[in-house]
Amino acid sequence: MAGFRSLAPKTRNLVVAGGLSAFVLGVYYYTMRAVGGTDELQVAIDKFEEMKKKDAARNSNAGGS
Known about the structure:
Elements: H1 2-5, H2 9-36, H3 40-64
Keywords: Membrane, Transmembrane, Transmembrane helix
InterPro entries: Coa3_CC
Organism: Miscanthus lutarioriparius
């Protein structure tokens, strides 16, 4: 890495800052894709709400007859 040491201090700081920023953004992007890829909890909530509505409709029809 002799080439890196020959750069001016300000330039070295910019190179390091760019590398760190790229790493942090990469980790953030990967994490958001891994976590937000599937929304299993929301799917389960939607199914539960649908079952609740069907059960309420069935109970109101049975009670009204």
